[in-house]
């Protein structure tokens, strides 16, 4: 099986020539399929930049990016959009739900961009995250924890191989953090590869592998302690 994610010598600079920011510098990273990776590091260290490159939302300034065995480095915007819809589900700290669409419609929108909207599948996905009775609510009528569960339903609806979660519990209280982490653990058990950005060492310990970024470089691979109870290690 190809690596789920393979980055070689990846660099990313932002901005015009005279005021460039080097967000990533010479990053090499291989993530085996089925890994639950926690990405840690101080603010500004490049975590979101790295997640955006893996998620085909952006392209590197140098180096190569391969996802599920496909080198996407020289893909066009259109190819990246197609590839992303097939392979990747996103969960963001700020949820990014469409405010004038119901929970159900937000999930169906993701189906629409992938292939065809299917209401009964979308309902089943919301039931899976415990929101079967919230399908017709707008995001503003849902708590933060409920909104993040809609996002998880949306991320899972097209059966992506890879889930990218950028500080998924950053805006949640402890009880909702537990629910969200439980759903990520389910997704991991179902065989998905997960890349999760977190500041919280306790959250990171649920992952099967941890890396630490600093100033755009991988400073430490597999930081921290192994595993909390109930999560089976698959890959380092
Ligand atoms: P993190 O997610 O670890 O906080 P980011 O990847 O968001 O870090 O940012 C890494 C560096 O790149 C920071 O110095 C940030 O200011 C800069 N940066 C991020 N996105 C942009 C952008 N779109 N334009 C210019 N600079 C950016
Ligand atoms: Mg960030």
Structure description:
The protein has 236 residues and is α/β, with parallel strands linked by helices. It has one domain (37-59, 76-231): P-loop containing nucleotide triphosphate hydrolases (Rossmann fold), CATH 3.40.50.300. It has seven helices and ten strands. A six-stranded mixed sheet has the order 6-7-8-3-9-10, with helices on both faces. Helix 3 packs across helix 4 and helix 5 (144-156) runs parallel beside helix 6 (174-189). It starts with a strand and ends in a 15-residue tail after the last strand. The model is unreliable at 227-232 (pLDDT under 50). Magnesium ion binds next to helix 1.
Mean pLDDT: 93
The distinct ligands, each listed once, are:
adenosine-5'-diphosphate, magnesium ion
The CATH superfamily label reads P-loop containing nucleotide triphosphate hydrolases
Query: Can you tell me the residue ranges where pLDDT is under 50 for at least 5 consecutive residues?
Result: 227-232
The number of helical runs is: 7
């Amino acid at each position: 099986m190809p690596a789920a994610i393979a980055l070689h010598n990846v660099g990313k600079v932002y901005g015009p020539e005279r005021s460039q920011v080097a967000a990533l510098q010479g990053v090499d990273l291989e993530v085996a399929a089925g890994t639950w990776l926690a990405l840690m590091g101080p603010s500004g260290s490049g975590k979101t930049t790295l997640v955006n490159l893996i998620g085909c939302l952006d392209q590197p300034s140098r180096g190569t990016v391969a996802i599920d065995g496909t080198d996407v480095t020289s893909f066009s915007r259109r190819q990246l959009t197609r590839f992303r819809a097939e392979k990747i589900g996103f969960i963001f700290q700020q949820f990014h739900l469409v405010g004038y669409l119901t929970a159900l419609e937000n999930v169906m929108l993701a189906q629409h961009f992938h292939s065809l909207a299917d209401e009964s599948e979308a309902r089943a996905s919301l039931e899976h995250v415990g929101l079967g009775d919230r399908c017709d609510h707008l995001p503003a009528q849902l708590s933060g924890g409920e909104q993040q569960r809609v996002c998880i339903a949306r991320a899972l609806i097209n059966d992506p191989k890879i889930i990218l979660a950028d500080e998924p519990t950053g805006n949640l209280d402890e009880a909702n953090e537990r629910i969200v982490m439980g759903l990520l653990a389910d997704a991991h058990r179902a065989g998905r590869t997960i890349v999760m950005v977190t500041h919280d060492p306790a959250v990171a310990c649920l992952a099967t592998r941890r890396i630490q970024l600093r100033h755009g470089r991988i400073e430490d691979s597999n930081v921290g302690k192994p595993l909390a109870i109930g999560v089976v290690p698959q890959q380092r």
